[in-house]
Known about the structure:
- It is a single chain.
- 53% of the residues lie in helices and 9% in strands.
- With 325 residues, it is an alpha/beta fold.
- The protein is globular.
- It starts with 14 loop residues before the first helix and ends in a 5-residue tail after the last helix.
Amino acid sequence: MSNIHERPILVEQHPVTRHQYIIPTPTIDALMLKIKKLVRMHTPGAVIFAYPRFGKTYGIRYVKNALQYDYPGVVCLSCGTEAKKAPSEDAFFTMLLEASGHPNALTGSVTRKRRRLNERIAELIDASGHNWFVIFADEAQRLEVLEYEWLRDVHDCLERKGIRMITLLVGQPQLLNQKTALRQSNHTQIILRFMIAEMRFDGLADADSLATCLQGYDEAVYPPATEWTYTRFFYPQAFDAGFRLVDQASAVWEAFMRAHLKSRIAVPLEIPMQYFAHTIEIALETNMKHDMLDFKFTPKMWDEAVAESLFSEALQELYLGMPSN
């Protein structure tokens, strides 16, 4: 490999190899626009739902970064809810304190933790230059009514101080069942604060969606402030000759379609982001040894990458677990 094609870092250090990167997708872009509208309208809460591995956690990371870019200084908190035998007020407020970065999240009584949380958020808001903040609750289908009531207390206390809390419940479709159950049990106050809007986080449903994602690999750079795009890093010779991943969108879609047809699942193809990204990572790393000026991915290469991503196996498990209409 000539000097102009010599990579600036080791392959093992690249974000794609380490699975530590985010690229935009049509679903993420749509979600970001909806969340920005919620912020402008001061809507207090929303449900964001998707089936497992569709990339909702990945998407929320992207949206959180985008909000912090568009609203410098804004406070965005993230917490993950855990499975438990019964709700614990102490554990609940410890979780929120940890999300806020409080140094004493583990100590003190529940009463003190409640007070610390409100004081901590007020401090963060004072420093932010905004009178609102966003909290993302991941795997929110695990929350129980009592925990929503505790969260409601936080919401109301902060509102009395002039602080708007925007709660985004991120989870699986069971969240919608939970909303229905809350409505039937007359917990309207919870729905109005935390579930008034609904957003579905979709998978990739056509070649155009894949093209948008693949273009991200062609444009994202690492190391920063260099001209080493992700695609160029793995295929420097082919890239210099005009190779771009975006041109592979139809080929990648067809490979997923072939796998989908073999699975005999009677639903339209929708690719979870987890398996799309893993397929691209496998294809890039496995075939980089073939890099040359006239390199081209073959259908076999894409079929092998889709197979190694375990997309077909995941498809079977996913749709076997879906409720029938």
